[in-house]
Specification:
It is built from 15 helices and 25 strands. With about 475 residues, the protein is of the alpha/beta class. The protein is globular and about 70 Å long. The structure holds NADP nicotinamide-adenine-dinucleotide phosphate (NAP) and magnesium ion (MG).
Length: about 475
């Protein structure tokens, strides 16, 4: 059985508790590895290592830090096949998707921040008799906590800017998908990242995660995950005055106007609904369609969705793999039941799938639901699975009202060829990210994050480097 260890001070270690947990392959429902179940002593040990490494790493030249990060990027790229297979087995996502998106993006994250740090500057403000200049220094030991949906992709999205800015890191991946974080630690060794600069703690959120939030030495927490856990972390960390960046849940509207480029919209909407089994915080789970187009869209969309092959993540032609865990599989099923109770009509999908030989895996057909009130629970709570609803609207104002009716505010997709409408709707939807005639088109320089219950703060580009540094202003009079 494969064993996944913590990574503390450059060493691969069991938890001091000697406890471990099962790691499950969701495509089969079988245990395939064991992962360390860490406690607060492990977090203390990781902190001691990170704290001892801080002096050296924060004083390492920008050129050298950049060189090591880019070396890590190169090594991730060279191990594409191994890492993609590990991600698919651990998470249930199609192997081709991990090869095309997850692992290349993990590499890009290191490459991007390895380069960005060489361009990161701070301000100066001059007056006739004085000058202010601002120095941005790393914070110290920081924590990065990431979810299971895009395991290595989001883990590296946090770690890379934290390290680039000169911090030392304690990182915790989700206990559900710990494998690629473990493999990354071997890559970091090979790339020459000094001992203690990155430490990885595995284990349960409420145990090792709480030990991180409570640790008085940790200066900042960058968290991506659910709104509920984000609020819990904030309740512990805010009174300790830790810096917090919270990237939380979403219930994103996909607003389709009748004047859109129909073929492109239809193709992209299938993807924005069901990519990664609908388990992307940016998926457009509420499809709002202008009434003129409603009947046509419904029927064309369902034809395409019925063609999506559900099954073995390792098969080339699989479009929808397994959901990540039994608990999540049951949660998604409970929402399909709720939709029925709320009066929804299932246009297609809604059933569990049992592919031959993989009967114990966690598969659900891509599900399309109509006839629900726009503000019912199914339409306002995050499901985070292969389930979308379609709702008609008559006017632009009504579309905006529907879009804004949830507590979430992460992203919105707009489909229209009317430039003025684009401006009006973008301005009035309460979200942090708007895509117009595209979806998940990412430029790593842009601010990424949500409003309302979707989070606090922004990641990406210089926003991330600002988060992971503390500005100090120095004023000199002459
Ligand atoms: P989650 O349950 O909130 O877990 C996220 C991470 O927090 C995991 O590593 C988890 O560890 C850890 N954790 C759990 N309890 C904790 C605690 N008390 N203290 C500290 N850490 C704790 O979220 P998830 O189910 O993994 O991920 C799905 C959620 O993430 C969805 O809501 C989705 O929208 C959101 N998400 C948001 C973004 C974004 O950019 N806004 C991106 C991706 C996903 P364990 O797994 O070991 O419990
Ligand atoms: Mg797993």
């Amino acid at each position: 059985m494969v064993e996944i260890f913590n990574y503390i001070n450059g060493e691969h270690l069991k938890s001091t508790s000697n406890e471990s947990m099962d790691v499950i392959n969701p495509s089969t429902g079988e245990v395939y590895a064991q992962v360390a179940n860490s406690n607060s002593t492990d977090v203390d040990n990781a902190y001691a290592a990170a704290n001892a490494a801080f002096e050296g790493w924060s004083n390492t030249s920008i050129t050298e830090r950049s060189r090591i990060l880019i070396r890590i990027a190169d090594l991730i790229e060279s191990q594409l096949d191994t890492l993609a297979m590990a991600e698919s087995v651990d998470n249930g996502k199609p192997l081709w998707l991990a090869k095309k998106v997850d692992i290349p993006r993990a590499s890009s994250n290191f490459r991007f921040f390895g380069n960005a740090i060489t361009q990161f500057a701070s301000e100066s403000h001059s007056n006739p008799n004085s000058i202010n200049y601002t120095v941005r220094s790393p914070l110290g030991v920081v924590a990065c906590i990431s979810p299971w949906n895009l395991p290595l992709y989001l883990f590296t999205w946090k770690i890379a800017p934290a390290l680039a800015a000169g911090n030392t890191v304690i990182a915790k991946p989700s206990e559900v998908t710990p494998m690629t974080a473990y493999l990354l630690t071997k890559i970091c060794d090979e790339a020459g990242l000094p001992k203690g600069v990155l430490n990885v703690i595995h284990g349960q959120g409420h145990r090792s995660g709480d030990a991180i939030s409570n640790h008085k030495g940790i200066k900042a927490i960058s968290f991506t995950g659910s709104t509920k856990v984000g609020a819990h972390i904030a309740s512990i960390a805010a009174p300790k005055f830790k810096k917090l960046s919270l990237e939380l849940g979403g219930k994103n509207p996909n607003i389709i106007f009748a004047d859109c480029d129909y073929d492109k919209m239809l193709k992209v909407t299938v993807n924005s609904s069901f990519a990664n089994q609908g388990q992307i915080c940016l998926c457009g789970s509420r499809i709002l369609v202008e009434r003129k187009l409603y009947d046509k869209f419904r029927s064309d969309f369902v034809v395409k969705v019925k063609h999506l092959k559900v099954g073995n993540p390792l098969a080339e032609d699989t479009k929808v793999g397994a959901l990540v865990s039994k608990a999540h599989f049951e949660k998604v099923q409970s929402y399909i039941e709720l939709a029925k109770e709320e009066g929804g009509k299932i246009l297609c999908g809604g059933n569990v799938v049992k592919p031959e030989g993989l009967e114990n895996g966690y598969y659900i057909e891509p599900t399309v639901i109509v006839d629900l009130p726009y503000n019912c629970r199914t339409n306002t709570e995050e499901i985070f699975g292969p389930v979308v609803t379609i709702t008609p609207f008559d006017t632009e104002e009504e579309a905006i009202q529907m879009a804004n009716c949830t507590d979430y505010g992460l992203s919105c997709t707009l489909w229209t060829t009317d430039l003025n409408k684009t401006q009006r709707v973008s301005k009035n939807v309460d979200v942090g990210i708007v895509w117009v005639n595209t979806w998940l088109n990412r430029d790593l320089r842009t601010p990424f994050g949500g409003v309302k219950n979707s989070g606090v703060g922004r990641e990406g580009g210089f926003e991330a480097l600002k988060f992971f540094t503390e500005p100090k202003n120095i004023c000199i009079e002459f």
